[in-house]
Amino acid sequence: MQDKNLSVSFQNVVAQITDIGKAWHSSDLLINARFNAQFVLNSIKDLPALDKIKQKNAIVVSAGPSLHKQNVLKQLKESHYQGTIVAIDGSLVKCLKNGIIPDYVLTLDPHPTRMIRWFGDDDFEENTRNDDYFSRQDLDVEFRNNSIRENEENIALINKYAPEIKLIICSSAPKNVVKRVQEAGFQMYWWNPIVDDPQQEQSLTREIYKTNKCPCMNTGGTVGTAAWVFANAILNIPRIALTGMDLGYHLDTPIEMTQTYYELQEFVNSRDELEALFPKFTFPLTGEVFYTDPTYFWYRNNFLQLLEKSVGETFNCSEAGTLFAENLPCKSFNEYIT
Amino acid sequence: MSNLLKGNFTTKKQVEAKKEDNESHSLQDEFKKAALNSIGGSMVYVERTDLTWSGDDE
Fold first, then answer.
1. Run of H or E residues at B31
2. Searching chain A, which residue's CA lies closest to the CA of residue B34?
3. A-chain residues within 8 Å CB-CB of B45?
4. How many CB atoms lie within 10 A of CB A236?
5. Which helix (H) or strand (E) holds A86?
6. Angle at B22 between CA B20 and CA B26, to 5 degrees
7. For residue A172, which of A108, A119, A228 has the smallest C-alpha distance?
8. pLDDT tens digits, residue range A227-276?
9. What value, to the nearest 5°, has the Cα angle with vertex A271 and ends A265 and A274?
10. A175 touching B (Cβ < 8 Å)
11. Which of the pair, A271 or B33, is modelled with greater confidence?
């Protein structure tokens, strides 16, 4: 671990994200789950069994910058890999554009206007007006430069392939995403997020569960981690590779492009104080330096804690980022698939 | 600090010492809320429970 040099202010922020975030979103999670209960025809309990080859290996395709920079999808397509592919909402279109149809796609985020973009958004201009969340950190240059045309193409692409894909959809999904994926024709399997200890009487997780009786999964706070939990604990696949799971930024990414830049710089007094909130990590396979921020670091800690409770092998094949530990070895993606 | 700095006059207006600690906490809280708002709904929170819960014990 390279955590020893983290500033006190950075560690304080990370330590309190969990409680603040739960208070921030708990009502959305329950409201969305209650609304979505009417659409729950199948849960992840109803998934058909995998065949022998797909049961052996899984690749989780997350949407970090390494997915593009390491040409992961091109390598995956050319490898004729036969195992299971678990993508997330944010990497689905990229997979399809590379001729890869994932077996499963995870979606989790309850945001009312942002997540719909991953499925092609009929109200794209309205939903992106006055919101630079994506344009500020968008890694898909093609999309950034031609967003309206790209969105139209994404709608057509999703409509074409959705019926072949099992969508592992969280009860927290917003109305517009649910409507869109139903219209596109995905095979939908529902689940609930574990957001606190379900054994407690006042548990929010238990309240969400009561709306639909679907199984619950821990998410680590991000859909990429949820995809890994799904592969590991629901599909019970013993050997899993993570790709596009950076949880950090390349050193050449300006901090102005990071997800919480505006808020962070508003509450520090100098450039030095600001940079202390973006600690650096050296990636063990390459010696390349990456930096993280409080949110990505929190995701990283959550993942590593969940990993300790898991069985089977997991390899980080992202070839970049901050997610590594003694029990999470890194491999090149090529080494994993050959 | 107020015990060390004592004046030999009385001010016309009531003067209150700066509440530096409280201000610092408040600023940090504001930052955290703003940061969370910026990253939107991707925050789904984790207690240190098992990877899954099936509700079968209900």
1. helix B20-39
2. A263
3. 18-19, 21-22, 25, 195-196, 221
4. 11
5. strand A84-88
6. 115
7. A108
8. 999 999 999 999 999 999 999 998 988 888 887 777 677 657 788 878 88
9. 45
10. no
11. A271
